[in-house]
Amino acid sequence: MASLDANLGDRPPELSPYLPADELQSRMEQMKTWLSRQNELSPRPLPPINRFSLVQAQNRRILDAEVDEHQHKIWRTFVGSPKNYSSTPLDKLSPVLISEMLLHKVHKGKFLLCRVVTPMVKMVGVHTVIEDSSGSVLEISIYNFPSTGLGFSCESANALFPVGTIVAIREPTLKLGNRGGQPLIRVDSISDIIFLDQTDPAYSEDRWSFTLPASLSAQSSITCTVEDFKKTGNLHFLRGEWLPAVFAYSKGLRLDKDAFLLRLNRAEAYLRLSYYSAALSDAQTVLSLEFIDSERRWKALTRAGKALYFQGKYAAAKDMFQQCISCKGDRDAKEWVSRIDEREEERLHGRFDWSKIYKQNYESPHILHIADFHGPIEVKALHYRGGGRGVVATADIKVGQLLVVEKPFASVYPSELPENESLLTYNLHTGTVPDSSHTVLITKVIERIWGNPEDHAAVYNLFAGPKCPLLPTKPPKTSSVSRERATEGATPFPFESAVDIDVMHLESILSYNAFCPQEIPEQEERSKKDLPSAFYLFASLFNHSCDSNAEWTCIGDVMVIRAIRPISKGDEIYIAYVPGSRPFLRRRKTLRKHFPREDCPCNLCTEDRADGTANCQQREELVKKMCQTKSIEESRRLLKQIEETYRSSRVLRPEMFKAKQHLAFLIREEFNQNAFRLSGFTLRSRVREAIKLDIDSLESVGIRIGKNRQPVLTQLSSTVSSETLILYFLSIAAGFFGLEDRVLAGGWVKAAESVLKLGLGGDKALFMFLFGNRVEKMGIGEFVYSVLGY
Ligand SMILES: C[S@@+](CC[C@H](N)C(=O)[O-])C[C@H]1O[C@@H](n2cnc3c(N)ncnc32)[C@H](O)[C@@H]1O
């Protein structure tokens, strides 16, 4: 993320989310060019900077922020603007002073040792004033630092960077800021910041030409003892400020690395942050100590067990909890053991209790207790696909077979975002304005990599846009975790990142691989501010087809992929990035970023292209009209016209599904309102007509209907979700039930149950959970239960 740098004479294009889509896209292209030009400006010396006025300006900002605390703030950001990061270790860099630095320059080969002079103020990132040892000052903006972004308070940033904190900034970038065009250091990558040890000679006051006011330097941690840090850490922990707690414990551990209580507490704080490898490493260090008592040992075992469980290392986690049980006969640990057994059933055999998982989703969209699962599939090199890979079947696959269950690497729901702040992001990679949840997702992914550096390679092995080279099917063994936490002499996490984080590359990766784990309602493409965003490492390897052979759905933020057609061994498996039910021209626009040169090559798009743009456009307009009309007669006319936009040879006709469903709906509405006026014969013939339309509509989306007017489920639909199909089937059943044709009604109920099994893996409990209320409302509850034997 980035805020816009001030221009130097040549003005940047004006952007607004309210511009027509094409105009907005073209201005974003201009903005891209403008930003890269800014990046290429010739370096020049810094103007003189007055310490007093810089500090005063920051103090004013702090006051303004306090006054505006409750006002709604909209922060403007850019995804895809140039951002730098360093990949050179600190000990290979040489120091630079502010007076030696140049504006518009990335100081390659250098690091700046600096001290925080004023409290932080929050903008898109956090902003403060720093000084170097000679007393020269500069403003600094730090983006993407965990626990400082959207929804976090300034106090959190000040707890992490209190006045007096000394940091080294690797290969700093000096730019002009957008607020008044002041020169500032801009840090996009958190891995560029290294926090110096408070025992480092740099912390000695005589190293600095300027003495910080006593009232401020008291906030510096130089005089604190291990006990002070423990207390501060515990206080933060009690307030739920996990990262400030981690920092306080870590400072204590810098003074005494054997202070195992701090380490034990830090392990718990790491768990709350989902930094599992860090939590595990702390818990294991405590377990390696011979002298700890059984209570502490039990705590360390529990924390190690949880870290391993959430990393999906179930056997090792079980071992920890079993040791807990022998330690204390612990009931909690027994529950964890049985949870682990359930996870192993899921992971190894794909046996999931779906209704239990759907119920978890009611409590929170972040499903905690579920294992990842892979069916008979593998990632294969497919050089003709962007990124060079795809997922193929390693055995013949049946309709409904479970292929993938995957927890997200990170996910963000709008309900987690603050009400008084939002982000207006321009994604220069895709020319779109993503919702806040997508932008926050980037920060979450950065944090997750920072806290779990072993995942770095898998994330950076994902497709990153049209210029991305062919990628290997497995992430290469990385040397980037080489600056290991435990390496002798290296600054340990969290004071230094174990991996270098290239934010610009990550932004590209997320532009091409983020999912919205919720169905996007029709017509909602331009106002999707309420939609969640999630990122999956494995699901990102599937290629796209609008007429896919597998369906992805989400339960909360857990991705589930199932086959909706029989798939032969060796065949590629596709999912739909954009639903095939969306009209062709809108689909093509949304898919443009994935197919920038030619269109999507799938069957559905090929058929739509063959119908011609004019027909597709007319079809889209007719369907729009159809959805707005309440007149049955007009609806019949429109249905005919929609049909005429298809070539006669076409089988899959998704818009006919919508149109027929709408007409059936209007007919039902009419007879519901006029039932008392219509003769029994007319009523029955209307009901029959509505049912016929419903049944015919299913054939337009690939559901074959047998001679007995029952569906033949040799495949599910690529353009209608299984959940929607079940509802239509049940509504047809209700129609036949109204006609007192219990045989046909029962047949459709059974078919609905089959779709539930194939498309959602469901059983009786799931049927009751998802559709129990709906069949009651349709007035066929008792009938349905008797047919299904519930
Ligand atoms: C999420 S990635 C899919 C995995 C990717 N193929 C890889 O190797 O990492 C999305 C990108 O894959 C490529 N892609 C997806 N579906 C495709 C298709 N049907 N044909 C060709 N390339 C496709 C496009 O470049 C798209 O932007």
From TrEMBL:
<dbReference type="InterPro" id="IPR011990">
    <property type="entry name" value="TPR-like_helical_dom_sf"/>
</dbReference>
<dbReference type="InterPro" id="IPR019734">
    <property type="entry name" value="TPR_rpt"/>
</dbReference>
<feature type="domain" description="SET">
    <location>
        <begin position="375"/>
        <end position="578"/>
    </location>
</feature>
<dbReference type="Pfam" id="PF00856">
    <property type="entry name" value="SET"/>
</dbReference>
<dbReference type="InterPro" id="IPR001214">
    <property type="entry name" value="SET_dom"/>
</dbReference>
<dbReference type="InterPro" id="IPR046341">
    <property type="entry name" value="SET_dom_sf"/>
</dbReference>
<dbReference type="InterPro" id="IPR053209">
    <property type="entry name" value="Gramillin-biosynth_MTr"/>
</dbReference>
<protein>
    <submittedName>
        <fullName>SET domain-containing protein</fullName>
    </submittedName>
</protein>
